[in-house]
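Bench notes, afternoon.
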Amino acid sequence: MDVPKFELTNQNNQTISDQDMLGKVYVVEFFFTNCPTICPIMNQNLKEVEKAISDSNFGVISITIDPKRDTPENLKIHADRLGIQNPNWHFLTGDRDYIYKLSTEFNIYVGEDESTAEGLNHSGKLALIDKNGKIRSRYDERGFPILYYSGLNYTDPEGKNGSLAGQYHPQIEWLKEDIKKLLEE
């Protein structure tokens, strides 16, 4: 599946689009800087991925779902606070309706109404994009397709996700493996 077309503003006030990322392997996440729950974990896990990959053809696209507060200036502060060195890690902002529509095109859940607390709900899913602008995935150990990676390594205590109760899901490790494979293509 082709990556949805996008064009947003990054933490350096530069316009970044899907076309700018062609030739790179990258991960897309939806997040916001003031998120008190999963976003800090997702950002730290993506930093771990970035550290393990260290390839100039690898990048991360972090799209805020709270553009009113996450201005380019605030995204720059966030990137600096995280110690991001990769010039291909773009923290993107823009029009909230556009971002919401983009999340639906990616099929990654983001709350619709930003004026409510629900509007800042979002999934911890990550999309992996290859050098040709295609969304890529893998199969889990039981042969089921994983269309998106979890931004969180997690244990499924009750076996609700098609796994055995208590099974550990090493999604970030899988993501690293798959990025390395795609960089070699």
